[in-house]
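User: Just a sanity check before I run the rest of the batch. Below are the structure tokens for the first item. I only need the designed sequence back.
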């Protein structure tokens, strides 16, 4: 098992470059099999989720040529085989192969996806979308078979603006006969990145980034080149770390409007930011941090994926703050470990009440899920003494070279195998 060890109390300064977005990459890789030719994707983060998806491509006999931060994917010899549990359970996003295989072959066979245990994480909206397109879904224990004689465009209303369901339906519909309209679609930037990728292949998708997406089915998808957008959650995580212990910390390769909600909350608290066209610098702060309240919401609201690291910042704010989580029913697993470090937090239903400022002291903590792990890193960086974060594999799933990036700006951090 991997453990991240941090000696807290150091001020961080310098530049951290943000990598390609995990939550775009994990959809782009399955989407790439839809082309009849070859897809080149650059700015691909070197994280274990990328590895897991490339393993599934190889299982499907898809030709993958991987070099630094880029993938050349050629599905000309692929076989539509069952994606077995050892492959599907490594991450939630394996389910994008359901939509992509259905869209390409009118048949997908795979086991239920994995992913962080932040909630039940059902896929009913995905399956409802596939059925609306004419597919039949059979589910034998953990295995799904989704197949259709023909896929026909349909009008699909999503009861929840689900990121995964929006993307998966897009993948299934892109080669269907006729037009599909997704209403109450999710609007996250990663969805726009996937739609752009498919359009670069010759698909006909409009409205991505709004709550109504129209997909006109096409017969052929051709060779294309594409770039992953910068990871807004990685960027936000490092900006929060800068607010915690930065003197002057520049976060480079950022699309600032993708994290407007975070920026306004930070400025409300008194964090000093310099916002450039493609970077955000956290400036040295002498003033105290003001408490504030956040409530997670679908994009462009405050992102649930930054709720956990942001809670660490609230432990340093003056007074009472409230964190309300509206997307996932089990996304407070970091709280007991923050309390172990000395934070004053009480959870009631879906709201955590944080009293600050608290002096945090190093201890032994666990990364229960990806963003809880990021919260542990943020807390350990300001805690006095040494902190060991076990189950660090969770963190490496979504943060490329986090140990290198933080040590390059002055953190005393290392990773060890135990
Ligand atoms: C994506 O998950 C992200 N993961 C999550 O990031 C992120 O937290 C989430 O979107 C919300 O922004 C990836 O992109 C790989 P949803 P996804 O479908 O698509 C319910 C991270 O840390 N729902 O938008 O799984 C669901 O239970 C990860 O990077 C259904 O009920 O999220 C949840 O309450 C964690 N039925 C809500 O909708 C469905 O069929 C939003 O889920 C689908 C979802």
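Assistant: Here's the designed sequence for the first item:
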């Amino acid at each position: 098992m991997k453990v991240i060890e941090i000696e807290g109390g150091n001020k961080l300064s310098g530049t951290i470059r943000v990598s390609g977005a995990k939550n775009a990459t994990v959809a782009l890789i399955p989407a790439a099999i839809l082309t009849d030719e070859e897809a080149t994707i650059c700015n691909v983060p070197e994280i274990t989720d990328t590895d897991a998806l490339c393993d599934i491509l190889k299982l499907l006999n898809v030709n993958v040529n991987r070099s630094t931060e880029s993938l050349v994917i050629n599905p000309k010899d692929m076989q539509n085989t069952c994606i077995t549990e050892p492959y599907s359970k490594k991450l939630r996003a394996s389910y994008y192969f359901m939509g992509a295989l259905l869209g390409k072959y009118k048949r997908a066979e795979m086991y239920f996806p994995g992913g962080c245990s932040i909630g039940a994480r059902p896929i009913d909206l995905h399956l409802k979308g596939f059925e609306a397109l004419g597919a039949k879904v059979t589910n034998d224990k953990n295995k799904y078979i989704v197949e259709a004689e023909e896929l026909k465009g349909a009008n699909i209303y999503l009861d929840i603006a689900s990121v995964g369901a929006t993307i998966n339906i897009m993948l299934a519909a892109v080669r269907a006969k006729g037009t599909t309209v997704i209403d109450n679609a999710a609007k996250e930037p990663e969805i726009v990145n996937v739609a752009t990728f498919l359009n670069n292949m010759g698909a006909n998708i409009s409205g991505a980034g709004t709550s109504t997406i129209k997909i006109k089915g096409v017969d052929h998808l051709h060779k294309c080149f594409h770039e992953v957008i910068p990871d807004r959650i990685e960027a936000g995580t490092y900006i929060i770390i800068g607010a915690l212990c930065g003197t002057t910390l520049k976060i480079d390769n950022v699309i600032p409007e993708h994290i407007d909600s975070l920026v306004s909350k930070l400025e409300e608290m008194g964090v000093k930011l310099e916002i450039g066209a493609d970077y955000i610098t956290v400036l040295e702060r002498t003033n105290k941090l003001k408490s504030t309240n956040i409530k997670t919401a679908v994009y462009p609201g405050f992102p649930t994926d930054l709720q956990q690291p942001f809670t660490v910042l609230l432990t340093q704010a003056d007074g009472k703050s409230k964190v309300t989580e509206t997307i996932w029913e089990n996304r407070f697993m970091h709280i007991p470990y923050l309390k172990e470090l000395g934070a004053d937090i009480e959870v009631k239903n879906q709201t955590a009440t944080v009293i600050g400022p608290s002096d945090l002291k190093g201890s032994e903590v666990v990364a229960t899920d990806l963003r809880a792990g990021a919260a542990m890193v943020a807390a350990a960086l300001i805690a006095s003494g040494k902190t060991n974060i076990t189950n660090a594999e969770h963190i490496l799933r979504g943060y490329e070279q986090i140990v290198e990036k933080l040590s390059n700006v002055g953190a005393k951090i290392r990773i060890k195998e135990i």
